[in-house]
Each structure stands twice: as C-alpha cells, then as structure tokens.
Amino acid sequence: MKQTRRTFIATGAAATAALGMPTILRAQPSEYVIGASLPLTGPFATAGQLVAPAFTLAQKLINDEGGIGGTPIRFVTEDSGYIPQNALANYQRALATEGDALVAYFGDSTGFMKLVAPELTGDQARLMGSTSFASELANPATNPYQYLAGPSYQDQFDILLQNIKDAGGSNVAFIFSNTEFGRDPIEHGKMRAEELGIEVVLEESTKPQGADIPTHVTKLAQSGAEYAILQGYVTGVWPQLIGGARQFGLPTQFMGTFWGMEKLIADRVTAEAGPFLDGYQGVMPYRYFYDREDAPRYQLFAEAAKEMFAGTPLENYMSTWTLQTMCALEIAIKALRDTVEGGKEPTPDNLAEALSGITDWDTGGFFGGPVSMVDNKIGTGRVYQYSTESGLFTPTSDWFTV
C-alpha cells in the first residue's frame, strides 16, 4: 500500500490516540509566571504598598517548596494607580511579554475584573484572582476564570445581619460609598434583612473620600438605628463616621465588611483621636495574622517575614489586605499544582476545572477549618470586635459558611 503524507499523518494520529497520548505536547516551561496589577499610587496606595511584599514572600516560599512539580514560579507586578484601564494595559502587556508561561493574574479592583472579563477568551484567558469580593464575579457560568479569595460582599452582609439577629437586634442602617464597591450588597442586604425580620431604617450614600460627616451622622441620629453596617471604604471615612457619631452621643453599634477591618488603621485612629473605635465589629474571612496557633502556613509566613522584612511593619504583622492577597495566590497555586500533578497542561480551562474542584481544603491558617470553592468563592467568615486596650480584633462569633 502506498504511504502518502496524508495517510502517514492520519495513521500516526490514530496510533497516538490509541496509546492515549496527546497529539500536541507543549514544551515544559522553564518557569510559571503570575502577573499582578497593584495600586502602588493613587487613593489606595497604602494598601497596595503593604500588599506588594506578599508577592516576594510567596515567590520565595513556593520555590523553596520545589515550585510547581519542580518548575519555579515568578511573580511580575506593576502599578495601576487603581485605574482599571491601567490594570488592563498591564494585563495585556504581561500576555504579550510572558506568553504561555503566564498562567494566572491578580487584579486590583472590581472595576478591572469587570473590564477584563470580556477579554478572557481563547489565548487571552488566564486564571484570575483579585482584591475584589464583588458578588457578580462569583458566577462560574459567566466568569469561569475569575474567583474570590473568600466570601462575596453579599455573603458578608448575610453574616453580619445574622449576627445582628442572633444578638437580638431589630433595625439597622446601611451606610455605603457611592461607588460600585459600596453599592454591591445593598439591595441583597435589604432582602436578607426583611427575611430576618430586621428593619432597614436608613440607606445613606457618601463620597468614598472627603465625605460630609456631620450631615451623614445627623441622618443616622434621626433614623434611631441600633446597628449600622459600613460598606465600600478602605482607609478613610469609616473611622470618621464612627468618630462623628460618638461625638454626637449615638449608641449605634457599628459594623464593617472586610476592607474596614484593618488593625493598622484602627490602631492609628486610636493613637491620634482616642478610643472611640472600642467595640467596633465586622466580618473577616480569615484568621488575623497574630492568631497563629495550629496555623502552620501562618507560622511559615511569620518565620520568612521576620527575616525578609526586618525593620518594616511586615516583620511581625501581616495586614488583612496582605492576607487577602496571599490567600488569592495560594488558591491559584493550589489549582496550578493540582493541574500539573494530575498530568494536565496548565491551560485556563484545566486550571478553572481544578479551581472548582477544591474541596475540604486545609489552608493551614487562613480559615477556621477546611473550606471548599463553591461558585468560584469561599463563603466563610466570622465576626470580630476591636479592643482599644489590647489593640486586637478578636472573634465574637463562630465561623459562618454562607
């Protein structure tokens, strides 16, 4: 039988399929790359500058552990200024520069995650975590490659409202920044409050910075709210609102979501303005960094940080913002390891499949116990309370899984 080029290729393909081998094999990469956009300048530069060292620490720890199946990992970070278009340009540059070696990316905001979503197709797709807990991102049907490193903002409201109900509260105020970040859980929170029999007596929108504190506090006083949930703030406004309410003599119990739960901010406010944050509560997806008993991953972080960041704030303490980033990176690394060790190429689809398969995972410190990825999020958290005397946030509730 005459062997033509066509029959040779067809015969070879059939033999390859019969042996269960792939017809195309990518060359083994010399390294895996994870890119990132961080707000090193702009309105959230404080958070970005505290987060940036996490990438250095993560790279060292992962490579000291043998990398991914013996292949080292490298992180590439760029400044976004907290401008989604800048972050998108950074992502596109990373794709062009790193090619197939770029297996995952870390974004700096909900705005970027929404802007980049239509781009995540074909060769442009990559597994993508971020600083965002935006509720709409927790949908693998529409955002298969994007994930949350914890509970969505809606989940966080669920946890806080359940805590209010458990404490016997009957009404609540929602105070939020006039941003997409701030508005995210408000409608859901109203529905959940109604289900729990809690009356929402005030919905107050503020500027994310430079808010008119006296006006907002006056409206809060007129509402008679027992509780107030603050949403959509990072380094400013939320302490000013609480301080203004205390000067006004309001007994309202204030509660915050993740970005309003940083010890460094609470400590600084206390040192500069007095103990008015005492008793402030909020939802936190993770254990704080000083809660390292039975947390081997945290202990490993602490040992490395003491050496790598001597003389800096990260020497003995990792901010909540840093922990959130580290958790997002750990999730990406978990999906990458599971994919590679399972004998599959780290394509976006294979990584997304591994991500959705994370079940009963012991993270070694971040959460209170084994967690699972459901709808591309980990819907777990608990309520903590700040003490101005100890300077610590300590838990006041059990862990909730939403």
From TrEMBL:
Annotated Leucine-binding protein domain residues: 33-376
InterPro entries: BCAA_transport, Leu-bd, Peripla_BP_I, TAT_signal
Superkingdom of origin organism: Eukaryota
Keywords: Signal
The keyword Transferase is assigned to this record: no
Protein name according to UniProt: Leucine-binding protein domain-containing protein
Species of provenance: Effrenium voratum
